[in-house]
Amino acid sequence: MSEAVTETESPDGGSSKQEKSLRYRELSEAWRKIMAAMTACSIILAVNQIFNLGFFVGYVVLDSRYMYMITGVMLCMVFITFPANKHSPTHVPWYDIGIMVVIAIIFSYYAYFAERIVLEAWEYAAPQIGVWLALVTWVIVLEAGRRAGGWPVFAIVLVFSLYPTFAASLPNVVAALSIPIQEVAIFHILGEESLFGIPMRVFAQLVFGFLVFGISLQFTGGGPFFINLAFALLGHLRGGPAKVSIFSSGLMGSMSGGPISNVLTTGPLSIPAMRRIGFSKEYASGVEACASTGGVFMPPIMGATAFVMASFLNVSYVTVAVAAIVPSVLYFFGLFMQIDAYAARHNLQGLPKDELPKVGKVFREGWYFIAVFIALIWMLVYLQREAVAPFYATGLLLVINQFTVHKLSFDRFMQLVAQMGKLLAELAGILAAIGLIIGGLAVTGIAGTIANDLVYLAGENVVILLVMGALTSFILGIGMTVTAAYIFLAIVLVPALTNSGLDPLASHMFVMYWGMLSFITPPVALAAFAAASVANVSPMRAGVEAMRLGAIIYFVPFFFVFNPALLLQASWGENLQAITTALIGVALVSAALQGYLIGLGDLGGGSRGILVRVLIGISGLSLALPAGGLFGFSQTFLVVVTLIFLGAGIGIRQVFSLNSKSGSKLEVPPD
């Protein structure tokens, strides 16, 4: 570590060679050029529409025509990027070329007749050719979802998109009027509530620019800069490399929005460094998995999910990002305190300072990354220019970068474009398919019925409803992306929570958090499994360690639902009180989980140590629980409960400590 990191192991977003061989095609030079051209075409279309440039000739594209054009291009990119099976990992077979030709013809037809489709309401009464084209498009979108998102996405989308055709045959609780498949097809494809509903609209109009910014940041040296900065600031502290992982993986995760790709980007650097100072392989894997997963809900970027949430809530993205600040701080603070306690308990020191990058040198070489971030936040918060801000930030970044040591060569720029194309294709394929779920529920009106049924099943008990919602969110999060799981839950589950009187923003954040938890929770802890592959350790053991390290995140969603002060939705005084008590409470819970309390030391082992940990853990949860809100506990009551349990835990620990010392003094040495 004596030299600053100049490249990450996987600057293209973190996919390992194994992952690439399984998911992405290794394209020939010709197909790479075609992908680059399609990526450039997508960016030009997006920039033209978002900035309202009129192609510089005054021709303003109808929104629906723009959606047809950019979706058609990106669906073609899906069939270039993702093979149908393991038999075509290095070449684009004839049938994929055929599918792309069909996509080009169909979406060109849609774009040409965009005005007629809107004015004549083809989503309800299309001509026969429109019906047939819609049926073909439906099948193509399903296959694109399978390739980009896997079989779980395909199966769920297939069932819910076909649901209107057999709804009348289901039990009464989920029954609805059946609709002929032709009418379902034109509603899905030619309307504005299914394929071109919230997911794809948000993607094409808002998320697009942030994805471009995130990839550009990585390829211009942003990843190495944040890793170097983390090592320079935290590497010398006890447990330093693990604390570095929190800082660097959190920032990288905020850019990429993908826990797995983030693990595979920063893990090859942070995990060996953790192992070097004494962390076990399991613990190092768990730290990396938790830090990378937490980046998904860390402002300012937060992946695609925050933008979709803002659209559902009809609020600005800044509102969602601000609300996510305190929960993300609590999560990363909990990780930091657990790592510190673990390092103190096991006497794990940091790395020698002479082996670490110098803070001054790191800042001199990468100051412009921070400057660009500040500019982005300024445009988002003060100018309220959410759609155009990331494009300006990307342009500023690329211009400044060309005058630095990280200057992009032509080959490196083409790698940037290629990775950008992969990411756009992946998200477009998934979000296009997920849109069909919204359409299936919207055309039947079943979403409201399910919400009322959930409230009825919970007996109007909000706590039971939240537990049901948490379990549902967790199960759906298994095998699905965070964004895909969130969109489904926002339609089906959130209305039930809001109908029970819960805050809408808190309800949306609740299902997003719980949908994400599957990445660190066995049996399918995908982020932990990715970290385990880097550390060469049992995936399940890494998953168990990640679940224990990320334990605080299982409680945080309940806290901010009970009292939205933790989402900064109350007065300044209430917000400050809730944050202060939550931070202290999280520190106590972290100490209980790791068996070490600052100022007191090791909490002991055996049954007595477990009792002390339980008491201190309960005290922390009591203090972290916001006053008022759903339960109506006063702050005084919670503080008293905290002091009782904390005092009992410390008292028992001290008594056993004194007894053990006196017992050792009374021990008679052998003759």
Automatic annotation (TrEMBL):
An MF annotation (GO) of this entry: transmembrane transporter activity
This protein's UniProt keywords: Cell inner membrane, Cell membrane, Membrane, Transmembrane, Transmembrane helix, Transport
Subcellular localization(s) per the UniProt record: Cell inner membrane
GO cellular component: plasma membrane
Record has Transcription as a keyword: no
Pfam families reported for this sequence: DctM
Annotated region (Disordered), positions in chain: 1-21
Membrane topology: Multi-pass membrane protein
Job of this protein: Part of the tripartite ATP-independent periplasmic (TRAP) transport system.
Residue intervals of the TRAP C4-dicarboxylate transport system permease DctM subunit domain: 137-571
Compositional bias per record (Polar residues), positions renumbered to this chain: 1-16
Species annotation: OM182 bacterium MED-G28
Protein name (Swiss-Prot/TrEMBL): C4-dicarboxylate ABC transporter
Primary localisation category: membrane
Record-annotated membrane-spanning stretches: 34-60, 66-82, 94-112, 124-142, 149-167, 202-226, 286-309, 315-336, 366-383, 389-406, 427-448, 454-476, 483-502, 514-537, 549-572, 578-598, 610-631, 637-656
